[in-house]
Amino acid sequence: MEPTEFPPLPALTRAEGELIDCYLAVLDQVGRINPARGSDTYSALRAAQALVSRAAALRDALSLMHERGERQIHAATLARALRVLDGERRAGRVAVPPTPN
């Protein structure tokens, strides 16, 4: 059985790649904190503590892009990268789950 073939990532600058990585790390932590999806306070607390450093890394990635003269965010390209990296599922963990029927 062959492994699943994933679509290729779009071409990104190193800074854009760092932005995507840091953004997804922040999403993951916020998803772990989400009280509508969590099961215990300790894991939410740990995620909140980790969120601080992840948010700082995201800020630094954006600052570096700005300092290098990368003034525009190429939303369509970055959205494709987020989809390839399972960003839709990861972002979904941040939302309040639908009401069960």
Features:
101 residues; mainly alpha; 62% helix; DUF5133 domain-containing protein
Outline:
With 101 residues, the chain is mostly helical. It is 62% helix and 0% strand. It has one domain (14-92).
What does this structure look like?
It is built from four helices and no strands. The protein has one domain (14-92). It is an all-alpha fold and 101 residues long. Helix 1 (14-33) runs antiparallel to helix 2. It is globular. The model has no long low-confidence stretch (mean pLDDT 93). It comes from Streptomyces cyaneofuscatus. This is DUF5133 domain-containing protein.
Hey, roughly how much beta strand do the residues contain? under 5%
- Pairing-aware structural class of the strands and helices? mainly alpha
Question: What distance separates the N and C termini?
Answer: 38 Å
Number of domains: 1
- Count of helical regions: 4
Q: Radius of gyration in whole Å, from Cα?
A: 16 Å
Estimate the mean pLDDT confidence: 93
Poorly predicted runs of 5 or more residues? none
Protein name: DUF5133 domain-containing protein
Set out the fold topology.
Blueprint: H1 14-33, H2 41-67, H3 75-84, H4 87-92
Helix pairs in contact: 1-2
Organism: Streptomyces cyaneofuscatus
Protein name: DUF5133 domain-containing protein
